[in-house]
């Protein structure tokens, strides 16, 4: 970004204003509210905005326009007198000055007013100074008066130009979107083998012997003669009442 130069903008605007308001027949436009000075202030705002790449404020543009108007007023008064003398000649200017003095005198006489003493001579000296016929103290007075008036209208033009040429603020950037990274799927845990619970194992009932009957399945017998409960003898008991399998009586002859 370039550095804003208020002096450069004011100098360029003042030179342009002084030149425009000094050109014969063109300076007539300036009689309408100093419109040429206002345009000079807008030009100063344009130069300042261009130098600063749009960073200059409206107040700085107004300051540049005011300084440009002041410079244009100081330089424009003697430049106007010089260009008028070159463009119209001394004889034509003498005639115009005489007609202006006669018009003012006729106006005072028409309204029955008496002109203050010395005012007619002062008016004639001022008219001759602004037209380029004479260079006297009125040339400096007119230049200072123009500087004050042009400063005000240059300020107005600078403020207007600063407001018109203000760079619009760029729209805010869209909100920054955070890219959504898909979450990788979690790894599937390996299948656990089925847990086998210890099966309850009941050992088979112990065998009581070949051909033996469990005691709890033996039939009950009547009590013996001595009062003891009868217990059926096992088939292999030798004292049992039944026939022994090895007894020969069981065999048939």
Describe the structure.
By secondary structure, the chain is mainly α. 50% of the residues lie in helices and 0% in strands. Helix 2 packs across helix 6 (137-164) and helix 4 (90-110) packs antiparallel against helix 5 (119-130). The protein starts with 5 loop residues before the first helix and ends in an 89-residue tail after the last helix.
Keywords for this entry:
disordered C terminus, rod-shaped, 253 residues
Question: How many beta-strand segments?
Answer: 0
Strand fraction equals under 5%
Tell me the Rg in angstroms: 67 Å
Along the chain, the helix and strand elements come as HHHHHH
User: What is the helix tally?
Assistant: 6
Structural class: mainly alpha
Task: Output mean pLDDT.
Answer: 78
The shape is rod-shaped
What kind of sheet is the major sheet?
none
Low-confidence stretches: 245-253
State the end-to-end distance.
146 Å
Topology:
Layout: H1 6-22, H2 35-51, H3 58-88, H4 90-110, H5 119-130, H6 137-164
Summary, kept brief:
The protein is an all-alpha fold and 253 residues long.
């Amino acid at each position: 970004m370039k550095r804003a130069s208020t002096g450069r903008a004011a100098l360029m605007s003042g030179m342009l204003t002084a030149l425009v308001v000094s050109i014969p027949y063109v300076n007539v436009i300036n009689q309408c509210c100093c419109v040429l000075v206002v345009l000079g202030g807008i030009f100063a705002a344009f130069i300042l905005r261009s130098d600063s790449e749009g960073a200059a404020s409206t107040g700085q543009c107004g300051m540049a326009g005011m300084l440009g108007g002041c410079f244009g007023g100081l330089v424009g008064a003697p430049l106007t007198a010089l260009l008028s003398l070159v463009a119209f000649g001394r004889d034509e200017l003498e005639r115009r000055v005489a007609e202006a003095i006669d018009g003012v005198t006729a106006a005072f006489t028409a309204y029955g007013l008496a002109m203050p003493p010395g005012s007619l001579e002062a008016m004639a000296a001022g008219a001759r100074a602004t037209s380029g016929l004479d260079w006297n103290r009125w040339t400096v007075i007119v230049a200072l008066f123009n500087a004050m008036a042009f400063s005000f209208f240059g300020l107005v033009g600078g403020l207007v130009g600063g407001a018109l040429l203000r760079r619009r603020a760029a729209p805010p950037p869209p909100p920054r979107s955070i890219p959504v990274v898909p979450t990788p799927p979690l790894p599937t845990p390996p299948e656990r083998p089925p847990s086998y619970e210890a099966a309850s194992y009941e050992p088979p009932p112990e065998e009581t012997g070949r051909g033996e009957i469990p005691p709890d399945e033996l039939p009950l017998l009547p009590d013996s003669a001595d009062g003891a409960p009868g217990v059926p003898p096992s088939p292999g008991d030798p004292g049992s009442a039944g026939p022994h399998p090895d007894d020969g009586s069981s065999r048939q002859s």
